[in-house]
User: Which sequence fits this backbone?
């Protein structure tokens, strides 16, 4: 075996060995008697989001495939968290990293990629990212990671401390250790694929609910089975929703889907800040809206049980967008109506 690959794999495994698992936080919501809500806090990874897991998986996958070797330039199409996390692992094993992103990407994101020694290559708009990354990889004999294609298969879905195994292990001593549902939004669809496969593999009595924001085709693709549906508009909830069904999105692992208005996602993230004193990203708000919707349904049917979702990233990244009232009024719309319905739901009663 190639000694360099052996060493690179060992470096990533040693880093994982030194890492702690992320917390599973229990929420206290008095009005939901008998329904226990949990948040898996993926913002606490060293690079700040659930993409830390994906980046580790993609690097190990490409190394073990022999696609990344000594000196191979690694390239990704990402304007977001994936580029930041991949830059971290590229630096760890000493390979060059280039993130292909739209020119209008937030300065803070560009800075973070550069902080980890990555380079940013700009294209004019998001739809050009994929092809530009593939071309760049061909030209420099590099490796295009292609998260939207490989996310679903790079992670060991049967276990190996993946996010699903971790959730079920951390739930073990709870009063309802097997969640009635796990709720998750989809970006690459990688996390829902891991959760859904693991649930079936272990035979758990847990349903997987996927939540989708506005301007995304995932909900329609799941409903109709038609993977060719496309829209020509980008979404407003960072990290989730896609204008087309990328290969990594696996509808058949999902038991149920809900569409969540973007303003409802933002209302839910504000609600969590009130409850926990912490800011989270907007996709976490989408997850929460889905979880609270299920909780309301369970209360209606007098059911007890537990529900689990994820904190995907922290809100500190979005102080000048989702946490800026003017920006929200201009870009998202009226959040107050959803804040009101959350207040009614959580006041304990009928709406
Ligand atoms: C990527 C991402 C998601 C969705 O996770 P996938 O596994 O890619 O479907 C949700 N929220 C944020 C902030 C993300 O970066």
Assistant:
């Amino acid at each position: 075996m190639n000694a360099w690959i052996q060493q690179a794999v060992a470096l990533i495994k040693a880093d994982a060995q030194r890492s702690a698992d992320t917390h599973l936080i229990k929420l206290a919501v008095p009005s939901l008697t008998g329904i226990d809500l949990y948040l898996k806090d993926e913002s606490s990874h060293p690079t700040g989001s659930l993409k830390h897991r994906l980046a580790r998986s993609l690097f190990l996958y490409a190394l073990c495939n022999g696609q990344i070797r000594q000196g191979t330039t690694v390239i990704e199409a990402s304007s977001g968290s994936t580029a930041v996390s991949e830059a971290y692992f590229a630096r760890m094993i000493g390979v060059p990293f280039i993130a292909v992103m739209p020119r209008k990407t937030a300065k803070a994101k560009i800075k973070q990629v550069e902080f980890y020694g990555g380079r940013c290559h700009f294209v004019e708009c998001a739809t050009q990212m994929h092809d530009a990354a593939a071309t760049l990889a061909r030209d420099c004999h590099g490796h295009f990671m292609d998260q939207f294609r490989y996310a679903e298969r790079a992670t060991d879905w049967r276990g190996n401390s993946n996010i699903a195994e971790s959730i079920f292990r951390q739930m073990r001593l709870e009063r309802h250790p097997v969640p009635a549902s796990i709720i998750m939004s989809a970006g690459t669809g990688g996390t829902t694929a891991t959760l859904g496969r693991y649930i079936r593999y272990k035979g758990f009595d847990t349903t997987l609910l996927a939540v989708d924001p506005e301007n995304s085709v995932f909900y329609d693709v799941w409903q109709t089975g038609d993977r060719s549906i496309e829209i020509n508009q980008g979404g407003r909830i960072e990290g989730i929703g896609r204008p087309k069904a990328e290969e990594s999105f696996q509808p058949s692992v999902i038991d149920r889907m809900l569409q969540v208005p973007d303003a409802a996602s933002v209302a839910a993230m504000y609600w969590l800040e009130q409850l926990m004193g912490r800011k989270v990203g907007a996709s976490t708000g989408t997850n929460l809206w889905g979880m609270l919707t299920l909780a309301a349904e369970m209360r209606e049917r007098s059911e007890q049980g537990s529900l689990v979702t994820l904190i995907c990233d922290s809100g500190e990244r979005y102080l000048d967008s989702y946490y800026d009232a003017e920006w929200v009024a201009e870009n998202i719309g009226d959040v107050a109506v959803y804040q009101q319905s959350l207040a009614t739901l959580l006041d304990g009663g009928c709406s």
In short: Residues 49-51, 80-81, 151, 185-192, 238-240, 281, 283, 312-313 surround pyridoxal-5'-phosphate (CB under 6 Å). The first helix runs from residue 3 to 18. The chain has a mean pLDDT of 96.
